[in-house]
Specification:
The structure holds two protein chains of two kinds. Chain A is 71% helix and 1% strand. By secondary structure, chain A is mainly alpha-helical. Chain A has two domains: 3-46, no CATH class; 64-303, MetI-like (MetI-like fold, Orthogonal Bundle), CATH 1.10.3720.10. In chain A, α2 (18-48) packs antiparallel against α15 and α5 packs across α9 (165-190). The two termini of chain A are 31 Å apart. Chain B is of the alpha/beta class. Chain B has two domains: 2-137 and 299-366, Periplasmic binding protein-like II (D-Maltodextrin-Binding Protein, domain 2); 140-297 and 374-409, Periplasmic binding protein-like II (D-Maltodextrin-Binding Protein, domain 2, 3-Layer(aba) Sandwich). Chain B has helices at residues 2-20, 36-52, 65-77, 93-97, 105-111, 113-116, 121-124, 146-151, 160-172, 186-200, 202-209, 218-232, 249-253, 266-272, 312-322, 325-335, 350-360, 369-372, 375-390, 395-409; strands at residues 26-31, 57-62, 83-86, 125-126, 129-130, 133-137, 140-145, 176-179, 257-263, 280-283, 295-297, 300-304, 364-366. In chain B, the strands form four sheets. A five-stranded mixed beta sheet of chain B has the order 2-1-3-12-6. Chain B has a four-stranded mixed beta sheet with strand order 8-9-7-10. A two-stranded antiparallel sheet of chain B has the order 4-5. In chain B, α10 (186-200) crosses α12, α10 (186-200) crosses α19 and α19 runs antiparallel to α20. The longest helix of chain B is centred in the N-terminal third of the chain and has 19 residues, at 2-20. The termini of chain B are far apart. Classes of the chains: A mainly alpha, B alpha/beta. Chains A and B meet through loops of A and α3, α4 and α19 of B.
C-alpha cells in the first residue's frame, strides 16, 4: 500500500473508500436487474394473490379468500402430492449421475465420445425430451408398447393412467437430470487428489471403503450443487408436464408450477389472483429448501 | 464514424416513422389461421376488399391460432388492431365485459344482418347488443366408414337403440365402434354435448352452461347414464386419453374403428389419411329422448372491432363486407365450411351439403361446451368428462366436484 504517497487519493471520497465502494459498483448492474426481474415480481405476485383479478377488469381485494379456496381444492392437493413425488424421485438423479460418472472416469480409447453420448440428453431441449418420451410411451406405436407386445403382455398407456403418469414423466425428466449430475461429478472427479488416493491405497483401502471415505468427501461440493440443482429442478418441473400431458389425464399429473400456469395464464383460466396464491405457496416451499441448504453450506464452510 | 452514426440515426427514425405512422386510411386486420385453406380464403377476401376500397390501405396480419389466443389480452389493451378475429359466446364475454370490444349493433341494423345472420345472432349478442360479425361455421355429427357399414349391412341410425345396435355389431366384428382422442379434452365435450342435447334438449344445454342447472341435476345424471351405456360396453377407442383427435383418425382410416363424433374440419384429416369420399359419410347424432327437438353444435368464427381501434369507420366496412352473401359464399367454399349468411350459396361438397341440411333444420344451435360455458367451468367440466370416460364408477364424485366449481364460478 502506497496510498499516502499519492496526493489525489486522500481528497476523493471514492479514493478513501475504494475497497468498500468498488465491489458495489460492479454489483450494481446485477442488483438492479435482480431487483427488477426477481425481487419485485415476488412481492407483486404475493400482493396479487390477495386479489380476484382476470387481468382485464378491476382487481377486487379478497384478502385471504384465494388461500382459503386452495385449502378446499382437490387439484391443489394432487399437484402438491405430485410435487412431493417429484422431489423424492428426482433426487435419484444424484446417485445415478455419480455412478455413471465413476464408470466413465477411466482412460479408455474413445472415452470422450462415450462421455458426450451420456451428456447428450442434457444438451437437447426439455421439450424434445418430453416429445421423445411421449412417443416412447405411446400405446399404439411407441417402443414401450412394442416391447410389451413382444413379451406377450398388454401394452400400458402410461401417460393416460392416473397412477403411473407422474412416474412416467419423472422417468423422462431423470434422463437429462442424470446427465447433468454426471457432468458435475466428472469435473469433481478430475479434481480428486491423487496423493490422498495413493495414501489410502497404501493403508489398504479399496472398493466401497475407498469410495465412501476417500473419494466422496472430496466430491462434497459436486454433491451439494447436484442436490440443490435437482431439488430446484424438481420443484419447478413445468416443461415436461406441459409437453407430455398438460397435467392430464384429468389433472392427475399436475404439479404446482403447471397448475399455476393453468389457472392464471392458460386458454381456460385467467384467475391471476388464484394463480398467484399457488405461486406464493410454491415460492415458500422452495424458500424452505433453499434456506436449509444455504444454511448447511454456511455451516460446512465454517467447520472447514 | 460520423457517417455510421448518421445512417443509424436515420435508420432508427425511419423505423420509428414506419411503425407509428398510422394514416386515417390504414386498416389493420388481425387473423388467426395459417392452415392453407383458411389462409387462402382470408387473403382472397383481403384482396377483394382492397379492390373495392382503393382509398383504404389494408394491413393484414395472419398468425398462429394458439399464439393469437395468448396474445389477444395484451394487444386489445396495448396495441389494438382495427379488426381482429375471435370467437362468440363465452369466449367474447370477458372482453365485452371489460369494454374491450366495440358494440357493432349499428352494422347489423344497417345491413339487415338481423335476418341474414339470424342463425348465430343469439351467440353474438350480449345485453341485447351485437359485438361482432360471424363469417363461417360448421356442423358436428357422426362421421362413419360407409364401406364398413355396407359390408356389415348397417344403415345410418335414427334412434339410440339403432345406434347401440350398430355399436354392438361393430364390436362383435372386432371393430372399435367409436374412435376418439381425449388428450386435449374438448373431444369428450363434443360427445357429452350431443348426448345431453338429445337427452334433454337445447334449453337444458344452455341452462347448464349458464350455470342455472347443477351437474347433479337428475336430467344431467340421465345424460351420463346414456353415456355410461356406451362407455361400459367398451364402444369407445381404448387409450383415448393418450391421443389427440388427429391420432384418433388413424384407427378410423385403417378400418379398426368405424365412427367418429366430430366437427366438419376433420374431413380434411380423413382425406389426408388416405380415405376417399366413397368410404366416408355423415349422419346427425341420433335421437335419444323421443320428441326432443334436434339441436346441433355449430361453432362460429367471427370478426370483432377492439374498442381501442384507431380506424373504426373502415373497420365497420370490413365487418359489413365479410358478412355479405357473395363474400361468405367464396370464403366458405375455400375453407370447406358453411356460410352463415342465409342468402349465400353453399359448396356442393357432400359433407357441406349434409351439414347445411342438418343445421338448417335444427331447432337450435349450440356453440360447443367450452364456448357456451365459462372458461373455468369448461376446463373443469372437460376434465370431468375425460375422467368419467375412464372411470365411469366415479360419476357421483365427479358431478359433486363440478357442482362445487360451478357454485364458485357463477357466484
Amino acid at each position: 500500500m502506497r496510498r499516502s504517497n499519492h496526493p489525489n487519493y486522500s481528497t476523493h471520497i471514492f479514493g478513501k473508500n475504494k475497497l468498500v465502494i468498488s465491489p458495489w459498483l460492479f454489483l450494481i448492474p446485477g442488483i438492479i436487474f435482480f431487483l427488477i426481474y426477481v425481487i419485485v415480481p415476488i412481492f407483486q405476485s404475493i400482493w396479487v394473490s390477495f386479489y380476484e383479478w382476470d387481468g382485464l377488469g378491476q382487481a377486487e381485494w379478497v384478502g385471504l379468500a384465494n388461500y382459503v379456496e386452495l385449502l378446499d381444492d382437490e387439484y391443489f392437493y394432487t399437484s402438491l402430492k405430485n410435487n412431493f413425488i417429484w422431489l423424492v424421485l428426482y433426487l435419484l438423479a444424484v446417485p445415478l449421475g455419480l455412478f455413471i460418472a465413476l464408470f466413465l472416469n477411466q482412460v479408455v480409447f474413445g472415452i470422450r465420445f462415450y462421455k458426450s453420448l451420456f451428456f447428450f440428453p442434457f444438451v437437447i431441449s426439455q421439450v424434445v425430451v418430453g416429445l421423445i418420451f411421449s412417443w416412447f410411451y405411446n400405446p399404439n406405436f411407441g417402443l414401450l408398447s412394442q416391447i410389451f407386445t413382444s413379451l406377450g403382455l398388454e401394452p400400458i398407456a402410461i401417460l393416460s393412467d392416473e397412477n403411473l403418469v407422474t412416474y412416467g414423466i419423472i422417468f423422462a425428466g431423470l434422463w437429462p437430470q442424470v446427465a447433468y449430475c454426471m457432468i458435475l461429478y466428472l469435473t469433481g472427479l478430475s479434481n480428486v487428489s491423487q496423493d490422498l488416493m495413493e495414501a489410502a491405497r497404501l493403508d489398504g483401502a479399496k472398493g466401497w471403503r475407498m469410495l465412501w471415505y476417500v473419494v466422496l468427501p472430496q466430491l462434497r461440493p459436486a454433491t451439494f450443487i447436484s442436490v440443490v440443482v435437482t431439488i430446484i429442478g424438481a420443484l419447478r418441473s413445468f416443461d415436461m408436464v406441459a409437453i407430455m400431458t398438460e397435467g392430464g389425464p384429468y389433472g392427475s399429473s399436475n404439479v404446482l408450477a403447471y397448475y399455476m400456469f393453468e389457472t392464471a395464464l392458460s386458454e381456460y383460466g385467467f384467475r391471476l389472483g388464484y394463480g398467484s396464491a399457488i405461486a406464493t405457496v410454491l415460492f415458500f416451499i422452495m424458500l424452505i429448501y433453499i434456506t436449509y441448504f444455504l444454511w448447511r453450506l454456511y455451516k460446512n464452510e465454517k467447520e472447514a | 464514424m460520423y457517417n455510421y452514426i448518421k445512417v443509424t440515426v436515420l435508420g432508427f427514425l425511419s423505423v420509428l416513422f414506419l411503425s407509428t405512422a398510422s394514416f386515417s386510411a390504414d386498416l389493420v386486420i388481425t387473423f388467426d389461421d395459417l392452415n392453407p385453406g383458411p389462409k387462402a380464403a382470408f387473403e382472397n377476401a383481403i384482396a377483394q376488399f382492397q379492390k373495392e376500397n382503393p382509398d383504404i390501405n389494408v394491413i393484414a396480419n395472419n398468425g398462429d391460432r394458439e399464439e393469437h389466443k395468448a396474445a389477444i389480452r395484451n394487444f386489445l389493451i396495448a396495441d389494438a388492431p382495427d379488426v381482429t378475429s375471435w370467437y362468440p359466446g363465452n369466449r367474447m364475454r370477458p372482453f365485452v365485459k371489460a369494454g374491450l370490444f366495440e358494440d357493432v349493433s349499428d352494422v347489423w341494423d344497417a345491413n339487415g344482418f338481423h335476418e341474414d345472420l339470424a342463425a348465430v345472432k343469439p351467440t353474438m349478442t350480449i345485453a341485447g347488443r351485437q359485438w361482432g360479425v360471424p363469417y363461417s361455421y360448421y356442423q358436428w355429427g357422426v362421421y362413419y366408414r360407409k364401406d364398413i357399414f355396407d359390408k356389415l349391412g348397417l344403415f345410418e341410425p335414427n334412434t339410440w337403440v339403432q345406434f347401440k345396435y350398430i355399436c354392438d355389431t361393430l364390436k362383435k366384428n372386432d371393430i372399435t365402434p367409436i374412435t376418439i382422442g381425449t388428450k386435449y379434452l374438448w373431444t369428450a365435450a363434443g360427445v357429452f354435448d350431443y348426448i345431453n342435447l338429445r337427452t334433454n334438449g337445447y334449453k337444458v344445454h344452455n341452462d347448464l352452461t349458464a350455470g342455472k342447472i347443477k351437474y347433479t341435476d337428475p336430467r344431467i345424471k340421465k345424460t351420463f347414464e346414456y353415456w355410461a351405456e356406451l362407455v361400459n360396453a367398451g364402444y369407445f377407442l381404448e387409450n383415448h386419453a393418450s391421443m389427440s383427435w388427429q391420432d384418433a383418425v388413424v384407427p378410423f382410416a385403417n378400418g379398426e374403428a368405424a365412427m367418429y363424433v366430430m366437427g366438419n374440419f376433420s374431413v380434411d384429416a380423413y382425406k389426408n389419411a388416405g380415405l376417399t369420399y366413397d368410404q366416408i359419410d355423415f349422419f346427425p347424432f341420433p335421437e335419444i329422448t323421443k320428441g326432443v327437438p334436434r339441436a346441433e353444435e355449430a361453432p362460429a368464427d367471427a370478426f370483432f372491432i377492439p374498442t381501442n381501434a384507431k380506424n373504426k369507420s373502415d373497420a365497420k366496412k370490413w365487418l359489413a363486407f365479410v358478412a355479405r352473401a357473395d363474400v361468405q359464399t367464396e370464403w366458405n367454399k375455400t375453407i370447406g365450411q358453411l356460410p352463415i349468411n342465409s342468402k349465400a350459396s353453399v359448396s356442393d361438397d357432400k359433407f357441406i351439403q349434409q351439414g347445411f341440411e342438418t343445421l338448417n333444420t335444427a331447432a337450435g344451435l349450440a356453440q360447443f361446451y367450452d364456448r357456451d360455458a365459462v372458461a373455468e367451468m369448461a376446463a373443469a367440466g372437460m376434465e370431468g368428462f375425460q375422467e368419467f370416460m375412464m372411470k365411469p364408477d366415479r360419476l357421483d364424485k365427479i358431478l359433486k366436484r363440478l357442482d362445487k366449481i360451478q357454485a364458485k364460478v357463477y357466484k
